[in-house]
Amino acid sequence: MKKGPGRLGRSVLAVPTAALLCACAGCGDQGGLESAGPTPTAVGPERLWPTLPPATRAADDYGAEETAVVKGVEVPGGKLRDVDPVTIVRARVAAAPDDYKDIAADVADCPASKDCPVLGGYYRDLTGDGRDDLLVAVRAPHRQAYLQTYTYSGGKLTQIMDDKDAVLKVHLAGRNIVVRAAADLSGYEYRTSWSYDGHQKAMLPTRDEILRTGSSHTPDAPSPSRS
Description:
Blueprint: H1 17-25, E1 68-70, H2 85-95, H3 104-108, E2 122-124, E3 133-140, E4 144-153, E5 156-165, E6 167-173, E7 176-182, E8 188-197, E9 202-212
Antiparallel strand pairs: 1-5, 2-3, 3-4, 4-5, 6-7, 7-8, 8-9
Signal peptide: 1-25
Keywords: Signal
Protein name: Lipoprotein
């Protein structure tokens, strides 16, 4: 898959209010404040290669801003829970068969086939509009999986996320989708958090990490290239 944005992170040091009040009031028998030694000099970020020319185009990222209106699927009362997820996925695959060559035949046989690759849907308000959105997983060859998210708004059923990876686990954390995927490096995994962006009206990979898992096992099917 295409490479996502850089990994984001921020450490926050929380100081209890009681500790601050105690320091200001001089708590304890000694009274006053004690020196903790010299304060280290603050070092700001240093710009490297200042003569490097600016980029002429943005780097590709994987799945970001890829949305599509799904046509031919009725959503009674605007409630996605009343629509079979298989119906939605079949409509999406039929509209873009070149994008889903590896699963098109299997999805076409759903739901009659016992090997239907469309897994049961999960419902959560991911966009913050108070209505349930739909998260679907579709198994693909070589232990890959498509993760797709759909929302219904303004009379339109829209796909707002379409990511393919060597998925290990998927978690819902509030309105965030956290995807754990096999990494090419033995003993590591990718962990990507997808969040809805109201400006782009799509799920964006807002946090992308590679983490040590402690296992030395190399996955049988490495994740797609994140070039």
